[in-house]
Design a protein that fits this description.
The structure is a single chain. This protein is mostly helical. Helix content is about 70%, strand content about 0%. The chain contains six helices and no strands. It is rod-shaped, with a radius of gyration of 41 Å. The termini are far apart.
């Protein structure tokens, strides 16, 4: 029994030691990160009890370097490693920020609107997972709710622009159709005028032929 207790205590002390070392290593990474130095935690393998932490920190490092695809990958890996409720929302917020970071509203063209709207809707779904934010605004994380509202404002602006573009396209189509109709109407009028002119010319030729009948000698009956 004493031997078993010794083993248990040894395991507990070992786990505690791993936690302390991993905590110190993560704090070193965070300190360097705040100082503008981005480096990975080489002792992240020690964080066996909270493996999401090293991936979260790595995501933050990539985010600050502008490597958003790598940041997204790191945050998604962090979520797969079972963070707590509070930590999960923090990861999801940073994941969404990495997703939308490349979007520059002032540079969005007509061709980009649909894809941008789809991306923003996808980002909102990330915040909705596990109730970090909700459509009704009753999520359990205030920062997630604020980010969701910011996304909604951009979506509203983009959809308003999309509607304006649809109206412009519709107006252009109507104007184009009107021009084509006017052109067709002009063609019909021109055809009628041509027919009328041809008819007048034919009548003129007929009248001219009748007048010329007097120039001929017609047989007017027997003369014997």
């Amino acid at each position: 029994m004493k031997k078993i207790l010794t083993i248990v205590w040894g395991v507990l002390i070992g786990c505690f030691f791993l936690l302390i070392v991993n905590f110190v290593a993560n704090e070193a990474v965070i300190k360097a990160y705040k100082a503008g130095e981005y480096k990975e935690n080489k002792l992240s393998w020690l964080g066996v009890l909270e493996p999401y932490i090293s991936h979260y920190n790595k995501g933050n490092m990539y985010y600050q370097k502008g490597e958003y695809d790598k940041a997204i990958e790191a945050y998604e890996t962090a979520l797969e490693n079972h963070p707590g409720e509070k930590e999960e929302c923090m990861i999801r917020i940073n994941l969404v920020l990495a997703m939308v970071a490349p979007i520059k509203p002032e540079e969005i063209t007509e061709d980009d609107v649909e894809a941008t709207i789809a991306l923003l809707e996808e980002a909102k779904e990330v915040l909705y997972a596990h109730g970090c934010a909700t459509e009704e605004g009753s999520g359990h994380n205030a920062q997630a709710e604020q980010l969701k509202e910011d996304i909604d404002r951009l979506l509203e602006e983009l959809r308003g622009e999309e509607k304006r573009e649809e109206k412009t396209d519709q107006k252009n189509t109507e104007q184009k159709q009107e021009k084509e109709d006017n052109k067709e109407e002009e063609n019909i009028k021109q055809q009628l005028m041509d027919l009328q002119r041809q008819s007048n010319e034919a009548r003129s030729r007929e009248m001219s032929g009748i007048e010329n009948f007097g120039d001929f000698d017609f047989y007017d009956g027997k003369t014997w």
